Amino acid sequence: MQKALLIIIGLAVVGAGIYLYMDTRGNKTTIEVKYPDGSTESIKVNDRSCQMVGWQNKVGVSFSFDVLKKYQGAGGFNFDASQIRQLDDLQNDFGLQFETLCKDYLNGVYKGREALYDCRRSNVGNALTALRQLKITLEPIKSIQEASAQKDAVAGALNQYYVVSAGNFSKDCNPRALNIDRNEVRFGETDNQQTVGISNAGFFDMTWQTANTPHNFLCDPSAHKIAPSASDKLTVYRLHGNADAAAQTLIVRDNFNESAELKIVVDDGAASTARLLTDIKDQLNAAPNPDPTAATIATVKKSYPSAPEGIVNWISGELLDKMGNAGAAKYVLQKAGQDPALKAQPQFKLDLGTVLVKTGDRDQSKVLLDDVSRHKDQFYAAQATMAMRQAGGSQDWVNTSVATTTPGTGKISAIAGAQASDQVKAERAKNRFEMEKAKAATTPK
Questions:
Q1: Could you say which DSSP state residue 104 is in?
Q2: Whether the Cβ atoms of residue 94 and residue 7 lie closer than 8 Å to each other
Q3: β-pair type (248-254, 259-266)
Q4: Which residues neighbour 314 within 8 Å (Cβ) at sequence distance 6 or greater?
């Protein structure tokens, strides 16, 4: 059975009234119109021309809005000036919106979105019903007293028309697009990745993106576009740097200003990292020719079955660093950094910068850590500042304008920046004192 199309409306001005005509040729489309007595009628319309000729009166409305103007004011209708101006355009607006909806359908705008078309077409019928109710309410009015008695009914009919015709008859036709299949994911000792389903229940293409990604976690992809009625997958990967162990919340947003929250719960603390390190060491002990890099990458691939190569290399670099193999960690982290999306992550810069300190690449490390120390997320800024301080050497490593964390707690100290500045000043004063002391010892008396 062919899909029903749209009611087709046109306009003609006759005398003092505006007449709506409807075409019965074509006979491929029907629309239900409700009558004041509760009865309904199926109206057949033309699905090809998007114009209306030759049918009037029974379904159309034939009246002018002069009665609304005549009995406007004290004791009668209580519309303001802007509403009065809108009334003269009401019928024309009605017809133009119908024509637009019809042409959009014929041009394939609603292909694959028939449910949206059906919903808007239903609102077309409701709008026509509201106009017919307005006509029936207005026709008997012959005095200002009668106008006053019917002003609420007239206002209700007009309001109903505006409600259902607004936005190209889209009332109740725009369901929530963004849906995720769960509101919480948990990470235990053996859980290093979790997958979340994202679907588009709307009638238009939806672009979603993640925000507020918890520390020590990575989302892949972090943004994507999906068609109506389509689904997508977001994978959350656990990293192995320093991070808060408490539950945190990931936000998923779309281009329709909708959002959904996904709670990230870590049940095991550092047990997952310890387990991976144990697995790697067991492989190395059992191998006749142990290769730490190969063993680490193989373990990560097994524990992260969905992870692309870049993420596997990143996590492998973190674990190799924890095993004390900074050289191998540098190698795989730099391979991971060939992916621009990973290279831009503050946690990645922090991991690579820390490793480069250990391999003696201080200049490269300084660039990375200094950049992260100025990050707007104070967790990363504090971690980078601490890493630079622990590296020692030139005091210009330390960005004293940022906060730091209390070791072992991950909590940011509100006065850490000031404390860092005081420490630097004290160390410089101490150095000057030692230099003056040495100079005095070598100066002849």
A1: H
A2: no
A3: antiparallel
A4: 218, 239, 332, 333, 336, 342, 348, 351
129-171: per-residue pLDDT in tens? 777 777 778 778 888 888 888 888 888 878 887 887 777 777 8
pTM score, whole prediction: 0.63
Task: Name the token pair of 306.
Answer: 């969905």
Distances (CA, A) of 130 to 155, 168, 337, 340: 11, 16, 63, 57
CATH 1.25.40 in the chain, residue ranges? 271-417
Cα distances from 262 to residues 64, 219, 250, 393, 401, in angstroms, run: 56, 12, 5, 43, 33
Per-residue tokens: 240: 């192995």
Write the class of the CATH domain 271-417.
mainly alpha
- The residues of the chain scoring below 50 in pLDDT are 1-28, 52-63, 394-395, 398-426, 442, 445
Task: Return d(Cα 222, Cα 311) in angstroms, integer.
Answer: 13
How far separated are the first and last CA of the chain, in Å rounded? 114
In residues, how long is the chain? 445
Distance CA 214, CA 383 (A): 15
For residue 43, give the H/E element and its range.
strand 40-45
Query: Domain 178-266: which topology?
Result: Immunoglobulin-like (2.60.40)
Angle, helix 346-358 to helix 326-336, in steps of 10 degrees: 150
